[in-house]
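Co-fold these.
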Amino acid sequence: MSKSIPELEELARKCRVEIVKMVHRAQAGHPGGSLSEIDLLSALYANYLRAKPSDPDWEDRDRFILSKGHASPGMYAILAEMNFITKQDLESYRVLGGVCQGHVDMKWCPGVDFSAGSLGMGLSFGMGCAIAGRLSNSERNVFVMLGDGEIQEGSVWEAAMAAKHHELGNLKVILDCNRIQNDDFCDTQMRMFDIPAKWQSFGWDVKEIDGHNMEEIVAGLDFLVGNDSNPAILIAHTVKGKGVSYMEDNPAFHGAAPNDEQFDIAMVELGEVHS
Amino acid sequence: MTRMAATRDGYGQALLDMATNEKVVVLEADLGKSTKSLHFRKAHPERTVSCGIGEQNMLLTAAGLAASGYIPFASTFAIFTERAFEQMRNGIARPNLAVHLCGSHGGTHTGTDGSSAQSIEDLGIYRTLPNVVVLHPCDDVSTRVLTNQLVDLGKPSYTRTARNKTPVFYDGREDEIEIGKGIILAEGSDVAIIACGVMVSEAMKAADELSKKGIEATVIDMHTIKPLDTQLIEKMAKQCGAIVTAEDHNVIGGLGGSVAEFLSSTIPTPLERVGVKDRFGESGQADEMLDLMEISAPFITAAAERAINRKQ
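Predicted complex below.
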C-alpha cells in the first residue's frame, strides 16, 4: 500500500536518524550524501520499487543501483525500514564481517543489486540489467542513482550515449545534485555547467525537482516510471547533509563522522531526542 | 602440411557454437571484425550489444547482464581491455560475476600495428585479480574448445587470442583440452619447456633443434595461466630437473612469473624464462617481432641449454 506524503516524510526522518547513528557509531563514513539522497530513496522504496524483502533475489524485481556507493548509510537505513535487513544489521556498518560494508555490496547485503565503490560504474551496470530485462521480456525497471560530482567520470557519458542508442526506456536515473564532492564544492573542483542540457543532448528525457520536497519527489518518480519509451533522468536538487544544521551544505561532512557533542545536536534536530 | 590458423577465429567459431544457449550474449566495442565476434552478430543481432568505442561501459554492461542471469562474452583488443581494468576489478572480479572477456591481438606477434597495440602485460595484470581465470590458447581448435567450456565456468575469465596465424596442433584432439590442465605435446626427460599462445609452436621448433643436439625436451601447452596446473609443473620439475617458460608477454608477471612463484616456494628447480625483456615493441612482421624480442625458437633452445647446465 502506497504511503502518503506525511508518511514518506516520517520514513525519511527515521532513516536520517539511523544514518547519523551509523556514521557516529563507526566514526567513519559518508553522512552528507546519505542525507541528501534519503528523501528520494524513501519515496522510491516505499511507493515505487517492485521488490520483495522476503525474496530479495526475486528474478523479476526492479533493480536499484546506488552508483554513489559511498552513500551507503542512506541505503542501509531504507533497507532496514523496508525489512530487507534488520535494525541490528545497521550496527554492522563498517564492522568486520558485517552485512553493511563501507560501500554497498551485492555479495554482502540482501536487497543490494550492485557492488559499488568506484564512481562512474553504476549506470553501465544498470544498462546491462536493463538490456537483460528486455531480453527476458520483463516489465521490470532499473533505477540508478548517481551523484552530481560522479558525472565528472567520463564513463558515465559512455553509458548515457549507449543507453539512448539502445533505446532503454526501462532505465531510469535519479541524479542527486547536492553540489558538493569529496574535496569541496563541485563548482570549485570541476564545473559541470548545464547538467539538464547535457542529458537532453544525449537523448534523455529530463525532469528537475527539489529533492527534499516530497510532493515534487513523488511527481518526479511518477515521471520516471510513466516513461517507458526513452531513458529518463530525474535531476533532484538537494542539500548535502540535509536535516543536520552543521552538515548542511558543508563539504567537511562529505566523509566525516560527527563527534559525541555533534551527534547529540543531530538527534535533537532530527526530532529523535527532545532538548 | 600443417594447417595454419589464428586463435581469434576459434573464438568467433565458439560464439556460434554456443548460440543455441539463449542466455549467451555478445558485447562488442567496434572491433567485432577483428576479434571475430562479427559472425555471432550477423547470426544473432538481437543478442549482440554494440557498445561503440567504449570499453569501460562494455565491461559493466556485461556485468549487469551477468547479474541478471545472462552469460556475456565481451571482446576487444587486449590492450583496450586494460582501459577498463578497474571495471574488471571492482565491477566483475570482486562480485565474481561470470563475464567472459576476450582480448585479441595480444603480444608483440600482433606485428605491424606497433607497440601501442601489442599488449605485453594483459596476462600478468588479470591473473592478479581474485576469481579471474586466465587463458591463452595456442591454436584455433583449443581456443574454440576452451571458450565453449567458459559457458559453464560460473566465474569471470580473461582469454588472450592472437591476430596472426600459427600452426594448428589439436585437429581431432578436442577431447584432450580442458581449462586448468596443461597438455604435453612432446615428451623428453632433459628439460621441460612450458609455453603458451603463439610461443607453443616456437617451443616445438626448439624441441626439434634440441633433439638434433641429443637433448630430449618435453613441451607443454600451458593454455591456462590461472589456475596454474601446478601438479603437472611439479611432475615436470621432478622428471626433467630443468624448466624453461616461453611467452609473448613481459617476462615479468606472466607465465614465467607464475611458474617461478610456484617452483621457488615448492620445488626449487633451474628455470629460464623466455619472454619480452621488460621493453616495448615496434612495428614489424610477426616473425620479425619474435626475433627482435629474443623469444623465437633459437632463444628457447639456448635457454633450455642454460637451464640444463644449471642442474646440480
